[in-house]
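pasting for ref
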Amino acid sequence: MRSEQLPHRRLNRLTGEWVLVSPQRMKRPWQGERKPAAHADRPAHDPDCYLCPGNERMGGTTNPEYSGTHVFANDFPALLSEEAGSREDGLLRQEPARGEARVICYSPDHSSTLARMDDAQRLEVVEGWCAQSMELGQRWAHVEIFENKGAMMGASSPHPHGQVWAGDFIPTIVEREDRCQRDHTEETGSPLLGDVLAAELEAGERIVAQNADWVALVPHWAAWPFETLVLPREQIARLEDIAAPARASLAAVLGKLLHAYDALFDTDFPYSMGWHGAPHALGEDTAHWWLHAHFYPPLLRSADIRKHMVGFELLAETQRDLTPEAAAARLKEVLP
């Protein structure tokens, strides 16, 4: 067996965690869970959808007849402005978490997705992301912008939408990325993800889509089967720092990537995605930060077989079967 097909571990430079890669397991038979493939056969407007224009949401609020992206305060927020009390009892510690949460409806079209929008429509979503980061970052320590797409990823509605959670703390994973990027910059004098991007561009084998301003790639340390990382070619700390031309080209590269996802298994591809920019609590201390988006799709072998993070993954360390190189090759094969 060739060495690249033997079990090995890869270091996630952003988090400091290891990933076990076991390529030989792709040959194992599957008699586990199968989920029916998701196909978008929804109407443009669903009178029962609480995100469609003109419909009433839970609690009695009526959505306006919006025609583009629409943002509103989440009716069931995970963070509130009220402050809970702190508590420390020996090893048992509790601290307050304040913030606010919003919903971003990408489109009034209930049947649409970010993948099926055109570049102009996707650009409006990008502009919405940037505006939310800038506004909420003025009063909160960190702004997390994300999307859970598809019932498989826990989306409570099929209407195309994402979320914004802004809080007075830096979340664990973002803090870990901050520390790893800062350590690398202090040791080398250059940003971690800038060096990673240069190495990935030189290797070439994990690049999925790119243009003048952005690169979408399967990272060397990818955990999920078709996980991707979207990076600007030049250092940008936060979403609001993206210049107008690069916002348009971001919409374009996202279109290529998301079309490839849908074409891979001929399905409405589920994923969780989110933006990581420099926490606003850092102020101007951002020389080590490089804005990036993570895409974490669960599908593994087909539209109805997904990757489960269980067993060894929960109890020891993350493990994957399909190599990142094989995943990137398969995505490139179906690029539009």
